[in-house]
Amino acid sequence: MGVKEKILIVGAGLSGAVIGRELAQEGYKVEIIDSRSHIAGNCHTERDEATGVMVHIYGPHIFHTDDTEVWDYVNGFTTFMPYKNRVKTTSGGQVYSLPVNLHTINQFFGKTFRPDEARTFLEDQADKTITDPQTFEEQALRFVGNDLYEAFFKGYTQKQWGCSPTALPASILKRLPVRFNYDDNYFFHKYQGMPENGYTDMIERILDHPNITVTLDTVFNRDAAEDYAHVFYSGPLDGYFDYELGRLGYRTLDFERFTYDGDYQGCAVMNYGDVSVPYTRITEHKHFSPWEEHAGSVCYREFSRACEPQDIPYYPIRLVEEKAQLTEYVARAEQESGVTFVGRLGTYRYLDMDVTIREALDTARLYLARKAENAAMATFLHAPL
Ligand SMILES: Cc1cc2nc3c(=O)[nH]c(=O)nc-3n(C[C@H](O)[C@H](O)[C@H](O)COP(=O)(O)OP(=O)(O)OC[C@H]3O[C@@H](n4cnc5c(N)ncnc54)[C@H](O)[C@@H]3O)c2cc1C
């Protein structure tokens, strides 16, 4: 198929790369720009020169999904190595297994409960006076009672969100956050793994198509859009409108990087539940590639705080205030033509990588279908609200 129209994609992360690849394969000429000096967005990985460890520069990323098409898609570009995410937590001077499971409960209460006994025990711990939980704290107390709440939920949540769990909605904790068996695999998904040579290598392969050009260190300018048949924008929604209605609230992360000669903590992720410890967790990156061997180690201490204008936005807050502002930005976006807002920043949602890829594939397909019908492309694939 010959080269058709020119498409501009803002952002060379997973969203931009997958949409770009799908359209390039259909004969579109795809130009991708990114303000950073590397591709892969927040999934970017880089080998540390001194130790050889594959470092997840913007924090660790574990691929997990139930979506067979997405799993086959990523496996078409790289080899995925087996990896199971198992998280530990340090709380009150002891190390426990997460998510809270039968091992955690037995260790914490000094018991040898079988599953049914633990379930009955926890029902007794639960605060039954709370019938209509409104806050995260009430929901947690209703599910697990005060002791487990204080040890495993309160401090961590407070550090992660920068506010008291009494100020967060109950909806954050939808289900009973406890397992009555010894399963400590963090994710329930059918497929889980790590790309053998990191995410940046995988995304480089997705972008490797003669119809795709990538230009780094380039910030999107709305005037440039006129030269293209369509723009797919994976930058921040509020940024597209120069923050005219104020900034949507995000949490950002600070990573305090340190190296260690040997094995620092014996696992990939160690959470810290106590409020007296200022960081939420320490991640040790060589354990995310368990098939590799390295004498040295690279670790990140992770601190969470409110995102300022100069920071990298990580987690959308989406509380009441942000939702009102988001409604206005969405209304503005819908008045635009020739642009589709995509990805975690373009739609102001937390999206795992598999969901990002699913949405990117569906976005490209919708564009092709609308083109075939000579119909206008949607501003959003899914309404962000
Ligand atoms: C701390 C953290 C941990 C995570 N861990 C996991 C995990 O374990 N498993 C999982 O499945 N998912 C995880 N995710 C989610 C994962 O990061 C996202 O799914 C993925 O990054 C979304 O890709 P994207 O392309 O939409 O966005 P991004 O990766 O953010 O890419 C957007 C790109 O657009 C560029 N850009 C922005 N504005 C402009 C502009 N104006 N001009 C030019 N370029 C611009 C940016 O530089 C960036 O490269 C995690 C996310 C965070 C924050």
From TrEMBL:
Its cofactor is FAD. One of its GO terms (molecular function) is flavin adenine dinucleotide binding. One of its GO terms (cellular component) is cytosol. Transmembrane segments: none annotated. InterPro entries: UDP-GALP_mutase, UDP-GalPyranose_mutase_C. Keywords: FAD, Flavoprotein, Isomerase. The keyword Ligase does not apply. Its EC number is 5.4.99.9. The keyword Flavoprotein applies. It comes from the Bacteria. This is UDP-galactopyranose mutase. It comes from Shinella kummerowiae.
